[in-house]
Structures are given as C-alpha cells and as structure tokens.
Design goal:
Elements (H helix, E strand, L loop, with lengths): L1 H21 L6 E3 L5 E3 L3 E8 L5 E10 L2 E9 L2 E2 L3 E2 L5 E7 L9 E11 L6 E10 L6 E3 L4 E4 L3 E8 L5 E6 L2 E4 L1 E2 L7 E6 L11 E5 L5 E5 L2 E4 L5 E5 L2 H11 L7 H23 L20 E4 L3 E7 L2 E8 L2 E4 L5 E3 L4 E8 L5 E8 L2 E8 L1 E2 L6 E2 L4 E4 L11 E7 L2 E3 L1 H5 L1 H12 L8
Parallel strand pairs: 2-10, 12-20, 21-23
Antiparallel strand pairs: 1-3, 3-8, 4-5, 4-9, 6-7, 9-10, 11-13, 13-17, 14-15, 14-18, 16-17, 18-19, 22-25, 23-24, 25-33, 26-32, 27-28, 27-31, 28-29, 29-33, 30-32, 33-34
Bound molecules: zinc ion.
C-alpha cells in the first residue's frame, strides 16, 4: 500500500514537472547586435537563437520599410508540442540584406527577428534592428591641382566630401594616410601623404572615402613624380661593435655573433618599424606645429634619408638595409630639442633606436629622435619647439654619439630635409593649410 502511494507521488511529481516545462514562461533568446545597420548594396547579418526550455520551434525575419514588409527568412524546426523540439540546439541564422533586389529605396527601415519555442504558450521573442538604407557613395571633390612630389617627399591633398561620418584619406598602394578636418576651413579635409622611395613608377595616390554603409568612392590625385637617386653607404662591421650591440640589444648571442647581429639588423629593425607605424596611427586632429622643423643645432649630417646601406664582414656582403632617417652628429651628449610643437606619444627604449622620443604634431605628422643617452620628458607631455627632450648618445644600433632624426606621416617615413626647409613648408604646406584660394604646388 505504502509502495503504491510512493509510486503515485513520483508519477504526480513527474507530471507536474512535465507540465511546468510545457508551460514554460521563458521565451527564446535572440542573440544579435542591435546597433543600427547602415546598408549599402549588400550586407550579411547573423544572429543566434536558443531556448533552454522546450526548444526553438521557428524563426522568422522580415524587413519593414514604410508600409511594406519583405520576408527574408522563415524556418520551422521539427518537434511536437507534447515533447518539445527534436533537437534542442542553438540555431545560427545568416541573412543577406540586399535592398536593391527587394526594390527598396534609400531611407530608414527596420529589421524584425522573431523566434518561437515549443511550449503550449508558444512564447515568442522579437528584436527590432534599425536600418539605414544608403546606396549613394560619398562624393569627393578634389581641391588641389597637379602636384609635383619628390620621391621620398611629402604632400597634402585637400578635398571636400558631401557626406558626414565618412572614413577618408589618401591611399597609396598598401599605404593609407587618414584625412583630417582642414584647419582653415572645416568644410574641407586635408590628408598628408608620402611618396615612398620604393613606390612603383605607375602607382598614383588617390583620395578614398567610405561611408557607414560601406559605399566607397575614389578620386585620383594628379601628381608628377620628381625622380631622384638616393645615396649609398658601405658599412664595415667589426667584431667589437657587433659584440657590444648584441649584448645591449639581445642580452647574449643567439648562435654565432654574425647571425645574432643580423637578427637585430633585420628582424628587430622590422619589428621596430611596425611598432613605430602603430604608434603613429593616432594623431591629434589639431595642427600643433608651425613653420619649419628645427634641425639639431651645430650638427653635421652623418647619413641621409633613404640611404642604401650594404653591410660587410670579413670581406663579404652580409646584409642590405635602407636608412629611413637623418643622422646628425654634434658634440657628445648634446641637448636634443623638439623640432616643433607637439605632444610626446613615446619616450622609452625602442630596439635599434635605443632611447627614443616620438612627438605627434597633429594631422598625421610625427617626428622621431633616436639613440638618446637620457630622456628628459615623459609620454603625454606637451612640448614647444626648442624644448629639451634629452641628450644625444649611442643607445640602440649606433656606432658613435649622434641623433637619428626621422619625420613620419601616419607612420610612413618622409624625407626630413623638406620639413627643415622654410620655403618648402610655405609652398607645399602653408599654401594648402591656409583658407585662401588654393593653388597647386
Ligand atoms: Zn640613423
């Protein structure tokens, strides 16, 4: 008798449990981004649906614009109201949004996602995602005419864009130089760019603009390249020098002395270039500098920009590298001065450059100071042209006491000689940054 009661109780318990599940109250969970989608010609949107109770019964997606609704997705999954979904799995849905194929015009719309479960109550969840259909690419009007650019030199392109919230700048091969609001006229944009020493002869810069709907447009920047040859130098490596630098930069030899040295001269150099490029990705939207950049006072030029170096050891060529800065030698531990107004964005050790300072001058323009014996400033400090940053030295891959000075535009090394030159600044920079009528230069 007692056993029967227990059996009955167990049965009643399971029935209650079963009914609770059938009558589950929790609706399916729709996992999706709900931020507005800017829709150009095509865009995929994916989301996930799961239901912990009776499982997902069906999913429906439609796009509503004004009075019209367009169904994009409708699926029902196997199962029964008494037993729930056959497969209680998370459903992944990917839909392709193509407004043109649906005959939709530009303007706001909504994406509706609905999911139902297998409970008797048929719980449903709904998500609404705002859409902005925009099939128009931004229009760029270039304001600078034919420009003469020296190989290795920098230039500026000024342009207008008829849309807001656009990513824009000058593209040159794989390089991208972001544009900034023009300091003299906020209705215009300016992007500084560099013609790299190794640029292919046929390669031309272009202004590109991409809006939030990923519509892209581009305009060729007409330039005439002024060709030039770059100096060459032969460097004889001594065992003593390599030993000193391997100890300083690697700590100990890895393999033999020469291969350790080459690790520094090749791999570390490349890592450092990449690091510098990263540091120079974010620049102040304000122009912080003015006038020509200051060259280390009373200094002698040791090596020039884009100098092609061959390295020799025991009578054979062991490496080739290109020197992307200016080496300026004065007296030992001479004060290193900020070349122009800016903000310290880096003040630390940096591989082959030793103790290094990088200043952001705004609008993508940076200057770099390497091999310093000591640093007198810290990251984040604002400096004026002529402020002391530290002292010259031999840290990093330097033989004698000197300053390695480099100019960069959005992380790409430019010829510092132009930036030292007041006339070049006036003709190539000031002419494009003033709000007067623009001329090509
Ligand atoms: Zn150097």
């Amino acid at each position: 008798m007692r056993l029967l009661w227990i059996l009955l109780l167990v049965l009643a318990g399971s029935l209650a449990g079963y009914l609770i599940t059938r009558f589950e109250r929790s609706a399916p969970v729709i996992q999706t981004r709900v931020t507005p989608i800017f829709l150009g010609t095509e865009r995929d949107h994916q989301f996930y649906v799961f239901d912990e109770g009776t499982g997902v019964e069906g999913i429906r997606v439609w796009l509503r614009k004004g009075e019209l609704a367009h169904e994009l997705f409708d699926e029902t999954y196997p199962g029964h109201v008494l037993t729930g979904a056959t497969l209680k799995v998370q459903r992944r849905v990917e839909i392709s949004l193509r407004p043109k194929e649906l005959g939709l015009t530009d303007g706001p719309a909504t994406l509706h996602i609905e999911a139902r479960d297998y409970s008797w109550a048929r719980n449903r969840s709904q998500v609404y995602i705002p859409l902005v259909i925009d099939s128009e690419a931004p229009r760029i009007s270039l304001q600078t005419g034919l420009t003469y650019v020296r190989r290795g030199g920098a230039e500026a392109a000024v342009y207008k864009i008829n849309e807001e919230n656009v990513t824009h700048g000058v593209e040159f091969g794989d390089l991208f130089f972001p544009g900034f609001p023009h300091p003299g006229d906020p209705s215009r944009q300016v992007a500084f760019y560099v013609l790299p020493p190794n640029a292919e002869p046929g390669q031309k810069p272009q202004v590109t603009a991409i809006d939030r709907a990923r519509n892209r447009s581009m305009v060729r920047v007409p330039i005439e390249i002024i060709e030039r040859s770059f100096p060459t130098d032969r460097i004889e490596l001594s065992e003593a020098f390599m030993e000193e630098k391997v100890n300083e930069l690697l700590g100990s030899t890895r393999g033999d002395l020469l291969s350790s040295y080459l690790k520094i001269n090749r791999d570390m150099r490349q890592e450092n270039t990449e690091r510098i490029r990263q540091i120079c990705q974010e620049s102040s939207p304000d122009r912080l500098w003015s006038g020509p950049f200051l060259q280390l006072p009373n200094s002698k030029v040791g090596a020039r920009y884009a100098e092609k170096r061959t390295y020799h050891f025991e009578g054979r060529t062991v490496d080739k590298q290109v020197h992307m800065g200016y080496d300026l030698a004065s007296t030992a531990h001479a004060p290193v001065l900020a070349a122009n107004d800016g903000v310290v964005v880096f003040a630390d050790r940096l591989g082959i450059y030793g103790n290094t300072v990088i200043l952001d001058h705004g609008l993508g323009v940076f200057s770099l100071y390497g091999h310093l014996s000591e640093l007198a400033i810290e990251k984040g400090e604002a400096v004026s042209g002529g402020d002391r940053l530290g002292s010259t030295g031999t840290t990093g891959l330097a033989g004698g006491d000197h300053l390695h000075f480099a100019m960069l535009v959005s992380g790409v090394f430019a010829d510092p000689l132009e930036w030292f030159d007041g006339r070049w600044i006036r003709e190539h920079i000031e002419s494009k940054l003033s709000n007067m009528v623009l001329e090509s230069g």
